[in-house]
Amino acid sequence: MKNKIDLSGMLMTVAKFSACLLPLAPLHVVAQVVDTSFHNSNLRDGTLLRDPGSDAPLSFLVDESFDQVAPPVLPQGWRSTATNWQTVEDLIAISAPNAAHVFEPPFISDNFLFAPAFISVAHMQLRFKQRMDIEYSKAAPDFAYDGVVLEIAGSRNGPFFDIENKGGTFASGGYTHLISISNNPLAGRNVWSGLVPDYKDVVVNLPPSLIGCLLFVRWRMGTDGDLVGADGYYLDNVQFGVPNEYIFADTFEKTPQACL
Ligand SMILES: [Ca+2]
Ligand SMILES: [Ca+2]
């Protein structure tokens, strides 16, 4: 499907579609999409990128930058179970000026950030940038007291499972620590933790067994009760996409089926 955008079969109305191809320049595509299937209207645009003068593959990127809202409000379609997850200004955000952030409390807590629903297609990846200052063990650096995981579910209210437990794999930027203490909601789980002052890439291969499924993912921070917290976790430039092929974010493709 390279070099082609296939709009067939989508549960939507395309209000506007335009494309302009200039020699030695990226192909810029604007598609204004009114999604009629999931009761929300979304306007999306993106840039179809190709290195000028090469046969490099195309990638259609649609991303959430958290920059179109005023902090602390989360973007449309995103939600949290607590006010601890919110949009904040971040001076080193990958896309300025905002990122999503969760503070690391010094007490036992469980904090969720839910992305909009999406339908998984073949070869789909979830990509994002993250940085953090989260309590880990300086004596045993593979272990952490607090941390963050990525979870997936087949319905809005769960149950949610660790992305790796349902066949997801990390192409890069996988978990770094193990929660080795018991008084954390993520006890015994692999997590992201530690001091990562600059944004790093995470690329997740979504489970191949869940193609065509309506899916939900959430970021989850679990903290223990040792009275030690820190600045916490920052998230930016969340992208759902298919390398080298076309993609629209979240709910625009195919008829979803319930999974998980
Ligand atoms: Ca941003
Ligand atoms: Ca702690």
CATH topology of the largest domain: Jelly Rolls
SSE sequence, one letter per element: EEEEEEEEEEEEEEEEEEEE
Alpha-carbon distance between the termini?
Answer: 28 Å
* Count of folded domains: 2
Describe the overall structure.
With 260 residues, this protein is mostly beta strands. It folds into two domains: 12-60, no CATH class; 64-241, Jelly Rolls (Sandwich), CATH 2.60.120.200. The protein is built from no helices and 20 strands. Strands 5, 7, 8, 11, 15, 18 and 20 form a seven-stranded antiparallel sheet that branches. It starts with 11 loop residues before the first strand and ends in a 19-residue tail after the last strand. The relative contact order is 0.24. The protein binds calcium ion (CA) (2 copies). The site of one calcium ion has 8 residues, from strand 8. One calcium ion (CA) binds at residues 65-67, 93, 95, 98-99, 236. Residues 1-31 form the signal peptide. Keywords: Signal.
Write the layout of secondary structure elements.
Elements: E1 12-20, E2 27-35, E3 44-49, E4 59-61, E5 63-64, E6 79-80, E7 85-89, E8 98-104, E9 109-114, E10 118-119, E11 125-134, E12 143-144, E13 147-153, E14 161-162, E15 169-172, E16 177-179, E17 190-191, E18 194-205, E19 214-223, E20 230-241
Parallel strand pairs: 12-16
Antiparallel strand pairs: 1-2, 2-3, 3-4, 5-20, 6-9, 7-8, 8-20, 9-19, 10-19, 11-18, 11-20, 13-14, 13-19, 15-18, 16-17
Bound molecules: calcium ion (CA) (2 copies).
